[in-house]
Design brief:
The complex is a heterodimer. Chain A has helices at residues 7-38, 64-71, 89-96, 158-164, 167-171, 196-217, and strands at residues 77-78, 81-84, 106-114, 117-128, 133-141, 146-153. By secondary structure, chain A is α+β, with helices and mostly antiparallel strands. Chain B is elongated and about 100 Å long. Classes of the chains: A alpha+beta, B alpha+beta. The interface between A and B is large, with 44 and 47 residues.
Chain lengths: 223, 386
């Protein structure tokens, strides 16, 4: 029989065994974790039976190339970032004048660049129009002023759609900041009566987005 | 023996790691295929059961295409006369016959379509899960709309809100939103049948009639009788499920062939690695024989090395399948016919064990020749080398 077991060999073997054992345990651990994770129900755990659809799913930015040409013609590329705002809910509530909704815990921001220079950001958001959801695309310059607004999707009646898509009305948002005044007729162009409900939703959506963006860009105070 | 085998494997870390990775990829592909196959069967069966019907009357044409379109919430090119419902209800085997009119309104800029479904109250008997999440569970006026839960979330609608169809100019009042069913119904807009017929200019026309029988055992006779309804043809859910599985089966066979090629390549890799190890260690093995190691001990040593190598590869493959499988799922769903809404990736313990064992078995088989060759070495070979 062969039994070559000098001390050094044993020590090396113990290390090898520990290494391989550890690796195997890690792989098995991952496997067990994934299996137990996949056996969980797919429903959101805190979803209640009578949850009103107040928080919308993330709004996609549907036509980035078109919007970039429109708002930032010199842009070369854009990125996507997620800014977490859940730690600023009290301040948000104060600035928004209402409790933030569930989907306002995070803000999806698309910073736009020309080579290495940031030109601004684009935000996409869904608001509750009178007859269905309205998706707006908001371009904000680096000085936090609105540089453009487009409604990328809406299902309003024709006359309401025409009023909301009117370049003059959309143009009245340009230059607005989070702290601007938002009075209809005075600060934002007036709309025909049938479009005012949806117009107010868009205005509030833009205002909220600017506040969320300002809060997201706000530096944390040092304690 | 185990320690010595481990020591030998660690002596060539790069070569052995690459061999194990090759095997891991093959095992991962096999495990993923098995998991998707199992998950698809379970999910499809569950979704079909939740529909609460055994057969459908669809317009003449390709019946599977028609039924698949209806179940997927797509518009049909042809339609049925509404009289088909009454004729179906007269059949003694039919418990429920529910008329449906489905119309898709494409929204190309959004990459989707608005799906409008007109139905009458008989549909409730086929949809036991039909429960209001908010508001009413049925229409109170002709311009009522009930939204599937996903549709309500996307459109930000709740009961009492207005809702508009830009393509037809119809205005609706949201009557209620439904609880999640896990089917394609979650993204549909439901309106009264008469409203849908008027709205889409399809008077007295239907897309399909969903039918439940008093007794599923009567399916064959009932199908034969219903086949005689003018302008209609019968598709049973069992046939449809079989067709879907056949469609998936063809793709699965192709992928399985690729997986087999990958597995064969990895087995050859194991074979090559072990054979190279035996050739490199000829002197060492001969000395072991010279100091008293039996042929069986040499075979066991090489086989243990093969087992450890393939076990590492197989376990890594299963872990890879677990990590990558669910990420691939939503990609696969886009290409699978009638992809159920439920999770398709179902890596069960049995599949997991099968994959690991398969990987190890083929590895051991690949190690058989190198082990035999090592055991045939004569102790005198060591002296020749010196």
């Amino acid at each position: 029989m062969f039994k070559l077991r000098p001390l050094a060999f044993n020590i090396e073997m113990s290390r090898s065994l520990a290494l391989w054992g550890g690796l195997a345990a890690l792989i098995l651990g991952i496997a067990v974790w994934r299996i137990s994770d996949s056996s969980q129900p797919t429903e959101v755990p805190f979803e209640t039976e009578n949850r009103p659809p107040t928080a919308a799913p993330m709004c996609p930015w549907r036509e980035p190339e078109r919007d970039l040409k429109l708002f930032f013609p010199e842009a070369t590329h854009h990125k996507i970032e997620t800014r977490i705002l859940s730690g600023k809910r009290l301040e948000l509530a104060e600035r928004l004048g209402r409790p933030p909704s569930g989907d306002e815990n995070a803000l999806y921001v698309y910073p736009v660049y020309r080579e290495q220079t940031q030109l601004g950001v684009v935000l996409a958001h869904r608001v509750k129009g009178e007859f269905g959801a309205i998706e707006l695309v908001l371009a904000v310059a680096t000085n936090q002023q609105v540089s453009g607004l487009r409604l990328q999707r809406l299902r309003e009646p024709e006359n309401v759609t025409a009023a909301l898509q009117n370049p003059q009305w959309l143009g009245s948002f340009v230059g607005k900041r989070a702290e601007s005044s938002w009075q209809p007729e005075h600060d934002i162009s007036d709309l025909p009566p049938e479009a005012r409900v949806s117009g107010a939703a868009v205005t509030e959506g833009v205002r909220s987005l600017l506040i969320l963006l300002a809060m997201a860009d706000q530096k944390e105070p040092h304690h | 023996m185990l320690s010595l085998a481990l020591k030998n494997l660690i002596r060539r870390p790069l070569r052995n790691t690459l061999t194990a990775v090759g095997l891991a990829v093959a095992v991962a592909v096999l495990a993923c295929l098995s998991a998707f196959d199992h998950g698809y069967r379970v999910a499809l069966g569950s979704e079909v059961n939740r529909m609460g019907l055994q057969l459908m009357l669809v317009p003449l044409g390709c019946p599977y295409d028609a039924a698949a379109r209806v179940l997927k919430g797509k518009e049909l090119e042809h339609s049925l006369p509404e009289s088909a419902v009454e004729l179906a209800r007269r059949d003694p085997a039919v418990a429920v016959a529910a008329p449906l009119l489905m119309v898709a309104q494409a929204r190309p800029s959004e990459g989707r379509a608005d799906m409008w479904v007109g139905l009458d109250e008989s549909a409730l008997k086929l949809k036991p899960w039909w429960q209001a999440q908010t508001g009413q569970k049925w229409f109170t006026v002709s311009n009522s709309v009930i939204l599937g839960c996903d549709a309500a979330e996307v459109e930000l609608r709740s009961p009492g809100d207005s809702f508009y169809s830009p393509e037809t100019g119809e205005r609706f009042r949201v009557e209620g939103t439904l609880v999640r069913s896990g089917t394609s119904d979650d993204s549909l807009f439901f309106v009264p049948l008469a409203t849908a017929q008027r709205m889409f200019n399809q008077p007295e026309r239907l897309t399909a009639v969903a039918i439940r029988l008093h007794d599923p055992a009567l399916l064959r006779e009932a199908s034969q009788r219903l086949q005689n309804i003018p302008g209609a043809q019968v598709v049973t859910l069992t046939e449809m499920m079989g067709t879907f599985l056949n469609l998936v089966g063809a793709v699965r066979t192709l992928l399985l062939s690729i997986a087999c090629v990958a597995l064969t390549a990895s087995v050859l890799g194991v074979f090559n690695t072990l054979l190279a190890a035996v050739v490199e260690r000829t002197n060492e093995l001969c000395i072991m024989r010279a100091v008293g190691a039996s042929r069986q001990q040499i075979v066991r040593l090489i086989t243990t090395e093969a087992l450890l190598l393939t076990m590492a590869g197989s376990v890594a493959g299963v872990a890879l399948a677990l990590v990558a499988g669910q990420s691939v799922e939503h990609l696969v769903k886009q290409f699978v016919p009638f992809a159920p809404h439920q999770r398709l990736f179902s890596l069960t313990t049995v599949i997991l064990l099968q994959s690991v064992i398969l990987g190890m078995v083929v590895g051991v088989l690949a190690g058989a020749y190198p082990a035999w060759r090592a055991s045939r070495l004569h102790p005198a070979e060591a002296l020749k080398g010196e």
